[in-house]
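Q: Please design a sequence for this.
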């Protein structure tokens, strides 16, 4: 019998305490009982995690672009600090890289 638990030790302890059949399986053969556990990961089952991250990174990129555009239009040439562009470039490059890493398809694991 397969038992589904979240990817936490607390959920494993709760399932073990509340399921007498699972306790008997672990007493008889712990390795086989552990193989019958189905562990779910919240990243795989909750699409809002990725949506929130993608939206946050997208907003960061757009806000940096808008901020730099406004600064180049409104700030005087003598008062403009070029290091600000370098800092914003580093932040936006990191955000674009993170966004690309999240949206790129995962490679298929074909090793046997």
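A: Design:
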């Amino acid at each position: 019998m397969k038992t589904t638990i979240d990817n936490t030790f607390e959920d494993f302890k709760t399932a073990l305490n509340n399921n007498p059949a699972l306790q008997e399986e672990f007493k008889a053969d712990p390795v086989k009982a552990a193989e019958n556990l189905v562990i779910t990961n919240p990243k795989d089952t909750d699409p809002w995690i990725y949506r929130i991250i993608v939206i946050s990174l997208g907003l960061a990129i757009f806000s940096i672009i808008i901020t730099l555009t406004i600064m180049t239009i409104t700030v005087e040439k003598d008062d403009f600090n070029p290091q600000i562009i370098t800092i914003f470039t580093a932040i936006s490059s990191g955000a674009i890289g993170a966004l690309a890493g999240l949206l790129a398809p995962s490679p298929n694991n074909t090793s046997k």
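Q: Thanks. Anything notable?
A: The beta strands are 3-6, 37-40. The longest helix spans residues 47-74.
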